[in-house]
Design goal:
about 190 residues, alpha+beta, six-stranded antiparallel sheet, 6 strands, elongated, membrane
Length: about 190
């Protein structure tokens, strides 16, 4: 029984870490701490129970399960893996959107912000939050931001298409960019926290 409970608590932690960004999009950053407390509170309670079980009954299997999960939680790059998968799965669709922006088929269409383009229904999953992309123009050069995380106030992260591979500036997209990383050809990942 203890082994089954350890597997359940560990599975919940791993699933939470893999789907954390999708969960944030559904629950918002305000409600996420409640789910975090439930999942990790349960996990920590079971971990304490497995330690006691190990000392009393010499049943090491549940303890190993919890330990492996803690190591995964601390050292496995869940966010990076999820972002890599998202980038690879959606790259061709994002390139298609970039072509439509470049040829003028998609233009800024949000009345309160001349840099926003609300994507058509078939593409709205490419940019999290509300299905909008941000068009940053600087003379003839432009970049397109597909949002991967829309935080509170000015926190955000995303994947950027830059047609001439122009390096992004820390002040681009109206933010104080903390991370800018080239991920492939004309594509960058950025984060503002």
């Amino acid at each position: 029984m203890q082994k089954t409970i350890s597997l359940v608590s560990s599975t919940l932690v791993v699933l939470y870490k893999f789907f954390e960004w999708q969960i944030i999009e559904i629950l918002t950053p305000f409600l996420l701490p409640l789910l975090w407390l439930l999942v990790f509170g349960f996990f920590f309670a079971i971990t304490v129970r497995t330690v006691i079980n190990l000392l009393k009954n010499k049943d090491w299997k549940p303890f190993v399960i919890q330990t492996v999960t803690i190591i995964l939680w601390l050292f496995f790059p869940f966010t990076q893996v999820v972002l890599d998968i998202d980038f690879k799965i959606n790259k061709s669709d994002r390139e298609e959107v970039a072509r439509k922006v470049e040829n003028g088929t998609l233009k800024p269409n949000v009345s309160y912000n001349p840099s926003l383009i609300h994507l058509p229904k078939e593409y709205d999953q490419l940019s999290k939050g509300s299905g909008e992309i941000v068009l940053e123009k600087n003379g003839d050069n432009y970049s397109i931001l597909f949002i991967t995380f829309r935080g509170i106030l000015d926190n955000f992260s995303g994947i950027v298409y830059s047609p001439n591979s122009q390096r992004l500036a820390r002040s681009d997209f109206g933010g104080d960019l903390k991370e800018i990383e080239k991920i492939d050809g004309n594509w960058y990942w950025l984060g503002s926290y």
